[in-house]
């Protein structure tokens, strides 16, 4: 975890009255990046009880009838149970450090969940087309549907110049106002995987010395691109071997098609058809992972079975798709 100053100040933003933008006292955190006037937090609404879109990307508040507390955007300095800004009272007031509030479970819905072969589901939604920029994972219990934990890291490209990185990040995260936190916290993909392996190891989902696939758990992605294409590509760029736990996954689009007998082009289609309001900002990885997790919760409550849909034969081999009816 990087070391950051706890000082902060308020900045204006067109969609909000104020946001916190922390300053780093360490020159190494800047990595050649000059400070600008954009806030670190995404443009989320301090929403009222009625869910409503506040900008492009449909930032909304999740319905929580039992709570009148205003919705808060997820803190993006927060990862693996730690946040460098926890001593800053204003920061704590503005941002949420508990993803569970966006993934509530209705106790009566668990009665409808069918027995699952897997214990845990790891919802993954990568961001970054040239190289991976964000690696977010939301872990839920496959039977109770409850949120268990999350892993989130911004990823620093390996084979790009600092100038190109600044352009890349401005184009991707500048519109959300989180480019500052990206520059403060991003680490290389190899380091991200090392931290992720510690995380899944602590949850007893995988042991490095044993290798192999995950233990009673599986990745859930909205499409095959994340694990079929992007992770192998990034491993080549980062000059590392494809980890064994990336050899199989669940494509939620295929599960959705076979369970509801209708095709969904992506997360937004699923949420619209299931009448689920969007939480957070579309195309911010951690928020997309939460929203996909909410789709998974809804499908489990409807009686869907989460099962592996794709397997890679080897680190360099072809992918075998296990469902006859699938999204191509």
TrEMBL record:
- MF annotations from Gene Ontology: 3'-5'-RNA exonuclease activity; nucleic acid binding
InterPro entries xrefs: 3-5_Exoribonuclease, ERI-1_3'hExo-like, Ribonucl_H, RNaseH-like_sf, RNaseH_sf
Q: What's in the keyword line of the UniProt record?
A: Exonuclease, Hydrolase, Nuclease
Q: Which Gene3D superfamilies match?
A: Ribonuclease H-like superfamily/Ribonuclease H (3.30.420.10)
Q: Where is the Exonuclease domain?
A: 120-305
The organism's superkingdom is given as Eukaryota
Mention any Pfam family matching this sequence. Answer: RNase_T
Q: Does the keyword Lipid metabolism apply?
A: no
Please name the SMART domains in this protein's record. EXOIII (SM00479)
Name of this protein = Putative exonuclease domain-containing protein
Originating species:
Dichanthelium oligosanthes
